[in-house]
Amino acid sequence: MKVIVVGSSHGGYETVRGILADQPDAEIQWYEKGDFLSFLSCGMQLYLEGVVKDVNAVSYATPAGMSAQGVHVYVEQEITKIDPTHHTVHVVNHGNHVERDESYDKLVLSVGAVPFDLPVPGHDLKNIYAMRGRDWAIKLKAKTVDPTVKNVVVIGSGYIGIEAAEIFAKAGKQVTIVDMLPRLLSLYLDEEFTTTLTKELAAHGVQAAVGQGVKAFNGQDGHVISVSTEKGTFPADLVVSAAGIQANTEMLKGVVDLDDHGLIKTNDYLQTSNPDIYAVGDATLVPFAPNGRTNRIALATNARRQGRIAAKNLLGTKMAMPAVSGSSALSVFDYHFASTGVKAGTAEKLGVTCASVLVTDTVRPAFVPADAGNAKVWFKLTYDPKDGRILGAQIMSKVDVTANINTISLAIQAKLTVADLAYADFFFQPGYDRPWNIMNVAAQKAVKALEK
Question: Residues 325, 330, 333, CA angle at the centre, nearest 5°?
Fold first, then answer.
């Protein structure tokens, strides 16, 4: 069998890895249109802050390492056309400008997404950067130590925007985050959490300009100098645009079915409208466990899960893509937070009716001092008010307790209720936890609320 895999980030890598695990003698051609294989944008913050020293280390694989396993790796080679009728693709080699056609038995599209380019005046000025891919990582690294960069404006307050803001604040820059939404991180956390995090950002020189959209990038001599919104103008020697992503699927029009957002339509087995073409990653939807519908959740965990399952299906082992909860985590200076499933702030958009309980406590018993690892913790549990089924949760503390969210993610997927969680068995040791885990406490509170 000959399999062509397009794209070398999370989904593409896991597809190749899955095929090698289950059928190592398969012929695999792996294509990356850029000049570097498998760069991981999710690791960019660690590189930009100097935790990881070598930008080339932020990768899953190398051409040499994959070639040693029998994979035919093609870097700087782009698939520009697909002929599903004849099972061929057209390849353009950007290194030597030679073009050719290749045949396939199965084709896997891990084409991903590209940064959304705000269609406002001045969007083509210099010093407006994105934060996605190795090339941008190298450019951004230079700006962190550029003495002419004093003011940075970040557009968007999702994870990428917050990471960019923290990076440049730590580099000594004055940072402003502009977002159309009324709160920073509002797609991931409810107000009880974002209020504290917004204050934490402000304490480190990051100001929030929320509830306002960008109207123009203003320039001088071809370089950006400020960003205007409907509420004000903010000085900017550098703009980092993290205003969202759009599916990289322009080439696929007329090849496979796309939805009205340009996302690739797939069935439960990750097949597109052409059964020999599979799709994984940020250009697809995933089944969302809390409401049983599909949702766009652009996370590495989902892409890798899709890649492994696509590999099994194209090799003949039928396996449906399991529902996911959309679990994620991040740090904002001293705070660590994680969330999964439905939040009060996202419930309406998801078409879900929910109730929530909030518990604040200390991570460890009160007698454990702060310098021994104790700190305040916030935990919010969201559930169905009719039957108590667990729909989501959020947690935050200056101590890293984010792993609790993995338990809630599993509870969502298993369709457990707050009654199931109320007395679930979790260990206790004063150096790590309290006698009742905070998840127990929240679930017990929710059970009482349901009984009223």
Answer: 160
Q: How many CB atoms lie within 10 A of CB 207?
A: 15
Residues 343 and 433 in one domain: yes
Tokens for 256, please give them. 């496979």
What does the chain come to in residues? Answer: 452
**What gap in Å lies between CA 208 and CA 401, rounded to an integer?**
26
Q: Which residue has the tokens 């000594």?
A: 172
Domain with residue 418: its CATH number is 3.30.390.30
CA–CA dist 7, 310 (Å, integer): 14
Contact 193, 337 (CB under 8 A): yes
Q: Which of 184, 217, 243 is the last residue of a domain?
A: 243
Q: Residue 452's pLDDT band (boundaries 50, 70, 90)?
A: confident
pTM: predicted TM-score of the whole model, two decimal places = 0.95
Which two tokens mark 431? Answer: 């150096």
Structure tokens at 217: 């990038």
Say whether both 269 and 219 belong to one domain: no
Residue 319 lies in a domain: no
Domain of residue 155, CATH code: 3.50.50.60
Residue 327 lies in a domain: no
Catalytic residues: 10, 42
CA angle 191, 197, 201 (to 5 degrees): 140
- Look at residue 341 and give its three-state secondary structure: strand
**What single-letter amino acid sits at 112?**
G
The CB-side HSE value for 135 (13 A sphere, CA atoms) comes to 6
The string of pLDDT tens digits covering residues 329-349 is 999 999 999 999 999 999 999
